[in-house]
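In response to the reviewer comment on reproducibility (Comment 2.3), we provide here a single inverse folding case reported in full, input and output, so that an independent group could reproduce the run without further information from us. The structure tokens appear first.
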């Protein structure tokens, strides 16, 4: 079933809010956008195709629940992540948002680009987001699964949640 204009607006607001929270380092608000059982996955590339099984193949980032994301945020906040200090300034661009609603929830896709600046160096990443959403949350939906396809996967340093 296709999405209604109201659903599309809710999904778009959710995805744009997620980007805003990352750019403004609103970590608690960002975490609140995710279901407790979220799967957050950045597959690696195996030649010209992304890996398909985070349990048996290489991933750039993989968390199987929100507690993994909460731990990552804790390390960023506490400055226990040397690689994340100082945090870069980021600007997330999310575009070409499309969604499809069915009985189980909503699937959404979007294209993205993130520009970052840290220690006098600019880095850009881009790719595609794939979401599975469930009903709930301030925007009508919570993120149950987020798969991030990183198209320029030769990472010149650190790759972290705020850069993608």
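Designed residues, in position order:
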């Amino acid at each position: 079933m296709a999405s209604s204009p109201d659903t599309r607006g809710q999904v778009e607001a959710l995805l744009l809010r997620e980007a805003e929270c990352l750019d403004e380092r609103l970590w608690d608000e960002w975490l609140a956008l995710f279901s407790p059982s979220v799967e957050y996955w950045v597959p690696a590339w195996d030649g010209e195709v992304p890996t398909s099984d985070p349990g048996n193949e290489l991933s750039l980032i993989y968390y199987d629940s929100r507690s993994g994301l909460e731990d990552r945020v804790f390390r960023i906040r506490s400055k226990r992540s040397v690689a994340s200090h100082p945090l870069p300034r980021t600007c997330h661009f999310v575009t070409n948002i499309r969604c499809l609603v069915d009985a189980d929830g909503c699937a959404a896709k979007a294209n993205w680009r993130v520009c970052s600046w840290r220690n006098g160096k600019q880095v850009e990443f881009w790719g595609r987001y794939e979401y599975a959403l469930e009903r709930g949350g301030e925007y009508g939906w919570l993120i149950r699964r987020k798969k991030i396809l990183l198209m320029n996967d030769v990472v010149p340093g650190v790759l972290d949640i705020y850069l993608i």
